[in-house]
């Protein structure tokens, strides 16, 4: 996994993203959690509806909003894990952003069961890594992961840009393209990124790559995207209605 992560990189626990000490929280050791296939016991037990060939905004957070990425090597290792398991359990990533204490993915599933396995492997493998380097004990992730249905319409690409602007809103950078751990540089600067499937609305922004990059830069995020960000379905009112009907129909069969 050499594309993003260099295991020989010198680690600095007193990096700006580090609290300078190894945090130890929770009542159970990791060995206790995973013994007898009990890893899922540390996760929420609410029913989750993930459908095949569907679009989702995925969020996974550190427990109690704890920092999950302290230094650059942590971000890069997590991206390598995504690349590794995405190859094994394929799906599409259109936009993403890794924040210091949580992760955003805008994705399309291929096989719903495969994606759930992907998330479990990703989160568990990264926890092994984090525990090894920082001595963490106890719950690491806040539940399994959150999934928000996203409508496939003209607002889809705006949802992606909204995700990529998280570091700007958090005042980590002044421009999205300055942040290295998101898909913004792919769309704004043409940076090669094998993780990304190009947003299906991006090609309509212009005839040339430079035109598309400029239009993406100038794109204004509609209030519909901002106002529906925390709702069950993210998108236009029409898409939210259609997706809600689909969720209600398929939800009858989720136990």
TrEMBL record:
Residue ranges constituting the Transposase IS200-like domain according to the UniProt record = 51-166
User: What GO annotations for molecular function exist for this entry?
Assistant: DNA binding; transposase activity
Write down what this protein is called. Transposase IS200-like domain-containing protein
GO annotation, biological process: DNA transposition
Recorded hits in PANTHER family, A to Z, give: TRANSPOSASE IS200-LIKE DOMAIN-CONTAINING PROTEIN (PTHR34322:SF2), TRANSPOSASE, Y1_TNP DOMAIN-CONTAINING (PTHR34322)
Could you read off the lineage of the organism from its UniProt record? Bacteria, Candidatus Gottesmaniibacteriota
Coiled-coil zones: none
């Amino acid at each position: 996994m050499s594309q993003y992560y260099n295991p020989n990189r010198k680690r600095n626990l007193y990096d700006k993203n580090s609290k300078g000490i190894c945090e130890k929280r929770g009542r159970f050791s990791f060995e206790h959690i995973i013994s007898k296939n009990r890893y899922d016991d540390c996760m929420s037990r609410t029913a989750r509806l993930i459908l095949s060939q569907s679009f989702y905004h995925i969020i996974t957070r550190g427990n109690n909003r704890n920092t999950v990425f302290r230094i650059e090597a942590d971000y890069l290792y997590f991206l390598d894990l995504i690349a590794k398991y995405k190859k094994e359990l394929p799906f599409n990533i259109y936009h993403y952003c890794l924040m210091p204490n949580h992760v955003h993915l805008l994705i399309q599933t291929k096989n719903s069961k495969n994606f759930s396995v992907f998330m479990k492997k990703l989160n568990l493998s990264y926890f092994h890594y984090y525990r090894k380097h920082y001595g963490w004990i106890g719950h690491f992730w806040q539940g399994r992961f959150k999934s928000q249905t996203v409508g496939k319409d003209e607002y889809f690409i705006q949802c992606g840009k909204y995700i990529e602007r998280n570091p700007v809103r958090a005042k980590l950078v002044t421009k999205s393209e300055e942040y290295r751990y998101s898909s913004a540089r792919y769309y704004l600067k043409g940076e090669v990124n094998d993780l990304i499937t190009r947003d299906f609305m991006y090609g309509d922004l212009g005839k040339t790559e430079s035109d598309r990059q400029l239009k993406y830069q100038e794109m204004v995020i509609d209030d519909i995207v901002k106002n529906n960000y925390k709702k069950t379905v993210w998108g236009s009112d029409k898409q939210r209605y259609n997706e809600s009907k689909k969720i209600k129909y398929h939800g009858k069969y989720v136990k």
